[in-house]
């Protein structure tokens, strides 16, 4: 698989999502440098257009091996890299990678089946192994907040059972459509309103009713409120309630965008749980390096 | 208030919502006839344009008194008819009506305050009093399904405490935006998939996670499923769980669109509760007549 490329000389790591693409150069000594952050998501690449995008990357940034992760490996991407069933180890992930070209690998996602139910992740797995490389407990509970938040029980450095909560998508959708739209335009911050929402979400299972209350309180002028932060707290509180019920003990690892991990840390604190925050970008690059080390 | 109009000679009843308008003629003997069902919601009427719309109605359908209900009485409508606090009796509603012109009344909505929380309805109150006129128990639990489903505890023929659940809006939004959109295009019917979703929604408080499972099961091809009916069942099951926790005993009155009341009746049956369904159009006209009787 290594072909003419030597991964230990450094490589390019790309987080290639549905609507965005980010790329970094990872040097032989581990130093990283961001190369691009653009809107060329996989849906914007013409059918058959990936080889020329890879050639362009190499022309601009050097003739190096390239690691691709994210939706690039989905059925809407370049070549489908089938989900690895949980529990998924880093070695299992590396074994299941696809190699569409010499020196180009695509990281697969992870699936989890339990009874008649199922879950999937694609893209978060690199960050999770990066978090483990950064020293996370090999059997702890991990949360990756985002459009589709993932709660993962780690099992001996493997991705064990996990559950996805649609928190980010719901907040984003409610702030762009429907009756709450006008009330959710502010910036979300972990203030008293966020904490009040999170307390409610942690304690009550009436999310779809409490969301409407935001509108009713506004119409009746009951207490001034930063409704964007309250609604975010409500959704994240419910998310944390679902995640904690999912199992695991000790501090919760939060891997992702720092503004999001800060909000989840606040909600976890209200639930009496400690959190350790790891920047998702750093985790992605550590995970990419951990994969590359297995390719040399 | 009666002016030159005699309500006992018959009147026009209009359910004037944000995006739609429906009107009926109600004859002196109680017979009703639909006059129109069009897209002239209150947001489509130019500022100051309501008097000429009323004149047009009278020119086309006879010089009769007109009862207006729904968002026409909101701050985005013609003249705001302030919410009547619950418990709200029919007499209290009639007393609080606004009369923008001789022979034209606007029905107010109802508000409910409890501690630091609040709820509102506008439009459903006419159907609720119509349901009572149709013989509903004066102290029972009532549900009006829709974009914003209302659960109402009736108290001696008054609208008592109530709670709104955003079930219809969430289903509609998820079927038009986001990752579940493709899976929610089918027609919702109370089939086995609907019942499986409702059972889950009645029993579990993980709605925002279970919604994502719909996507994961599809990607992993775990069991063929009518996902639109499953998702609707899930949301309605959670809705019924919230509504039943809200209080009340005996059969639940379901007042609204027959296709929706049928789905809620199915979910209630899974929860071991009987339901009595009343067509919302019939209830609206009965409620309008009950108001008109108080104006003669």
Automatic annotation (TrEMBL), chains A, B:
Keyword Transferase: yes
Gene3D superfamilies referenced in this protein's UniProt entry, alphabetically: 2-keto-3-deoxy-galactonokinase, C-terminal domain, 2-keto-3-deoxy-galactonokinase, substrate binding domain
Keywords: Kinase, Transferase
Molecular function terms from GO: 2-dehydro-3-deoxygalactonokinase activity
Superkingdom as given in the UniProt entry: Bacteria
Record-level GO BP terms: D-galactonate catabolic process
The keyword Kinase appears for this protein: yes
Protein known as: 2-dehydro-3-deoxygalactonokinase
UniProt organism field: Sphingomonas changbaiensis NBRC 104936
Higher taxonomy: Bacteria, Pseudomonadati, Pseudomonadota, Alphaproteobacteria, Sphingomonadales
């Amino acid at each position: 698989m290594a072909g003419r490329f030597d991964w230990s000389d450094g490589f390019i790591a790309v987080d290639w999502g549905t609507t965005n693409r980010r790329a970094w150069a990872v040097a032989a000594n581990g130093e990283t440098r961001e190369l691009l952050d653009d809107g060329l998501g996989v849906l914007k690449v013409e059918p058959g257009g990936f080889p020329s995008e890879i050639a362009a990357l190499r022309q601009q940034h050097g003739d190096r091996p390239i690691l691709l992760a994210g939706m690039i490996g989905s059925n809407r991407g370049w070549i489908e890299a089938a989900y690895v069933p949980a529990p998924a180890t880093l070695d299992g992930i590396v074994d299941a990678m696809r190699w569409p070209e010499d020196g180009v690998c695509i990281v697969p996602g992870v699936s989890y089946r339990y009874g008649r139910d199922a879950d999937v992740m694609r893209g978060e797995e690199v960050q999770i192994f990066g978090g483990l490389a950064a020293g996370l407990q090999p059997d702890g509970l991990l949360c990756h907040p985002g459009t589709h938040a993932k709660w993962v029980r780690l099992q001996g450095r493997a991705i064990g059972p996990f559950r996805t909560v649609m928190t980010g998508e719901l907040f984003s959708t409610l702030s762009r459509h429907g009756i709450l739209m006008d009330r959710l335009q502010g910036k979300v911050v972990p203030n008293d309103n966020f904490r009040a929402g999170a307390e409610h979400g942690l304690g009550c299972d009436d999310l779809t009713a409490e969301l409407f209350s935001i509108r009713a309180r506004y119409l009746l002028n009951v207490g001034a409120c930063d409704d964007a932060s309250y609604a975010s707290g409500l959704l994240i509180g419910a998310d944390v309630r679902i995640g904690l019920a999912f199992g695991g003990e000790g501090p919760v690892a939060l891997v992702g965008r720092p503004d999001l991990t800060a909000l989840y840390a606040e909600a976890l604190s209200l639930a009496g749980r400690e959190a350790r925050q790891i920047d998702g970008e750093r985790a992605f690059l550590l995970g990419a390096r951990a994969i590359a080390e297995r390719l040399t």
